[in-house]
Amino acid sequence: MEHLKIEIHGIVQGVGFRPFMHRQVRSHGLCGTIRNSSSGVELELEGERAALERFLDELPHRAPRLALIERIEPLWGGPLQGYEGFRILPSLVEKERNTLISPDVCICEDCRRELLDPKDRRYRYPFINCTNCGPRFTIIRDVPYDRPLTSMGCFPMCPDCEREYHDIENRRYHAQPDCCPVCGPHLFFLDAEGRRTDGDEAALQSAREMLREGKIVAVKGLGGIHLACTCDDPAVTRRLRQRKQRDEKPFAVMCRDLGCARKICEVDEDEARILESSRRPIVLLKKRAPGLLHLSENGYVGVMLPYTPLHVLLMGDDLDMLVMTSANLSDTPIVYKNEEALEKLSGIADGFLLHDREIQTRCDDSLCFCVDGKEYPVRRSRGWAPYPIRVEQGRGHLLACGAEQKAGFCLSKGSFVFPSQHIGDLKNYETLENYEQQIAHFERLFDIRPEAIACDLHPDYLSTAYAKERSEREGIPLVQVQHHHAHMVSCMADNGLQDAVIGLIWDGTGLGTDGTIWGGECLVGDAKSYERFGSLRPIPLIGGDLATKELDRIAWALLRDAGLETAERPLYESMLKSGLNCPRSSGMGRLFDGAAAILGIKSLASYEGQGAVLLEAAAAEDETGAYPFELTGAPLRFDWRPMIRAMVFDPADTARKAAKFMNTLIAMAAEQAELASRQSGITDAVLSGGSFQNMYILRRLPDLLRSRGLKVYHHSRVSCNDEGIALGQLGVLSKKGY
Fold first, then answer.
1. Shortest CA distance to 536 belongs to which of 630, 639, 632, 628?
2. pLDDT, tens digit, 9 for 90 and up, residues 42-72
3. Which residue in 85, 455, 553, 643 has the fewest CB atoms around it within 10 Å?
4. 176 near 17, Cβ under 8 Å?
């Protein structure tokens, strides 16, 4: 007989790991104990040496579906304890915390089957869950992941749930959110006048009736509240747009099942797999059905499947699809508290389907495309957060504060990087407050005390102000990282690249080291340093930020610079001549904005990137032609003037022109990167920045780059937009020796 202690690190709490281990230990004829610790899980086993070795050999390859084993530390020897059987001990709370936390997980098939079984005691109970599914991250206050430290702490289990909880053979063994209609949370419904309906079924039916009547209902989910309405009547979605002041931005749709999704969208096997995965993100799918402009004005519809038992019951058998959009006022975080919903959504929602289980942490729905068979995140949030990214080289306790738009932060500890959930644009106090609260929450959960901080170069970002204030207050080093360098290093980290790369970094705005606005860059370098090899001919932004909304200002500047006739605009002429509030930008997003206005696609944008999105949607997929362009100077600038002149005089229709415009950008990028490769000898190329959310370009450019001898990498674990920039800031900070 020998004694073996095993410490297991990773996502091993809240995923059924301890009961799973019980079955494995028993199958090997061993005895011992297991308990959660602040570092993961701790096993103490006794048995014959050969059986212990077999168990240890199999351990890395056998774990519950939702578990992630990152590291196993065995320690042989120690006095025999004479264990009999196998027991789960109370959790061990240690000074140093190194545990990982599971994201929220969609309802599993077993729970769904019980939910719809009239013979089951949890029949139609909206909060059914087990060790394989249900809330995790959004209900945790602190670690270790035990019921008293979650939102379920105020719901004592009934005798039946207690028996399940302590039955090693049961699927709900030590499932912290375990509950039933007798002892768990419950729904209630309020109409606009405040009349309340209690009881799960009565509240649910009140909400369903209101939805069928064409009304708008606020529905409390896992990480926040949605505004829901039916999709089939454009008048209903128009009413929601008016009330929410969301004139044109697309709405996400929840479809009852995959078959319903296929009625309106093209869904291939990989997209279906992502839709039905445990993360259940919103997947951007190509439109199939006509007449969906009231949902999405571009070529895609964001579709998700029901991911909680409440959603399953709400859809029922008769509601094929519902608009499900985040319940928030313009540019503010998603509403997640009952009282807040009743106050802030008054006048928007006709009814409120709420419940009494508190959401501890806001967490919006995740959003992605499917590229090369994998998720291509646009918004990495529910289902991902707080899942870490493993990096090749260990790092200290570091904090990266991100940028301003699509704000997100990253914390690092050892070989793990913890990207935050979606925060939103840092433009107001409410979002900044949530941003600061989430940094503090992550630091507490993962026991991280930052030893250095990284932020953007831009002095006016609220994230930069936060970083500077904290650096001064706590006396820790601060490193400011150029925006597009951070994008490049983010894609490198996403793909585990260490050596120098060519970075094609395309977005709308980022402060350059020369004090000008960058955004259509070809960089050469690594996490330590870079060279600005290529860029765009700068575009005058008449009126500064106003030009990103009034796109005809950019169009006028492009046409004028290309030597083409323009309408008389004395004010524009004066601003250009004096340079007053007329900064110049090399942003690729601004070139898209101007082209969209020139082509008559969009001249007044109601949301960020609208011109680019609609230009992509307008393009003819089968067009292979392109316009002339020039690459001149140092950095090697893309002179877009020949392209603009050719586009204006092209007799083709708008769809052909839009495609040729993007084909020209693709050809330019390939030539720029090939020249950079010849000069540097580097053959790895990374694509990052918000403009690479353009699927027309992303599905064509890599093949052309490969034909020029380059190996191409894009994102798959964090967003290519500014939400992913903090990961790159961390990489730069780490290379600085912190």
1. 639
2. 999 999 999 999 989 988 888 777 777 878 9
3. 85
4. no
Domain of residue 202: give its range: 187-367
Q: Are residues 428 and 560 in the same domain?
A: no
Note the pLDDT tens digit of each residue in 315-341.
999 999 999 999 987 778 999 999 999
Same domain, 518 and 438: no
Domain identity same for 597 and 706: yes
What is the per-residue pLDDT across 161-182, written as a single tens digit (0 to 9) for each? 999 998 878 989 888 999 999 9
DSSP letters for 62-110: ---TT-EEEEEEEEE--------SEEEPPPBP-SS-----PPPBPPPHH
Instruction: Give the CATH number, domain containing residue 33.
Output: 3.30.70.100
Q: Is the pLDDT of residue 19 over 90?
A: no
Rounded to whole angstroms, the Cα distance separating 395 from 3 reads 34
H or E element at residue 375: strand 374-379
Any idea what the CATH number is for the domain that residue 407 is in? 3.30.420.360
pLDDT confidence band for 97 (50 / 70 / 90): low
Q: Which helix (H) or strand (E) holds 47?
A: strand 40-47
622 falls within a domain? yes
Q: What is the number of domains present in the chain? A: 4
Which residues share a beta bridge with 252? 302
How many Cβ atoms are within 10 Å of 284's Cβ, its own excluded? 24
CATH number at residue 697: 3.30.420.40
User: Is the link from the previous residue into 177 a cis peptide, with omega within 30 of 0?
Assistant: no
Q: Which two tokens stand for residue 240?
A: 């929601």
Regarding whether 595 and 571 lie in a shared domain, the answer is yes
Confidence (pLDDT) at 706: 98
- pLDDT given for residue 98 in this prediction: 64
Q: Is 144 inside a domain boundary?
A: no
Q: Across the strands, what pairs with 685?
A: 502, 712
Asked whether residue 171 is domain-assigned, the answer is: no
Sign of the Cα pseudo-torsion (637, 641, 643, 644, in order): positive
Does residue 429 share a domain with residue 456?
yes
What confidence score (pLDDT) does residue 96 get?
59
Residue 738 placed within a domain: no
- Which residues are paired to 496 by β-bridges? none
pLDDT at 14 over 70: no
Buried/exposed code over 590-611 (b: 16+ C-beta within 10 A; e: otherwise): bbbbbbbbbbebbbebeebbbb
Distance from chain centroid for Cα 132: 22
Same domain for 560 and 435, yes or no, is no
In angstroms, what CA-CA distances link 307 with 147, 204, 223, 255, 353? Answer: 22, 16, 12, 11, 16
Over the stretch 200-258, which tens digit does the pLDDT of each residue have? Answer: 999 999 999 999 999 999 999 999 999 999 999 999 999 999 999 888 999 999 999 99
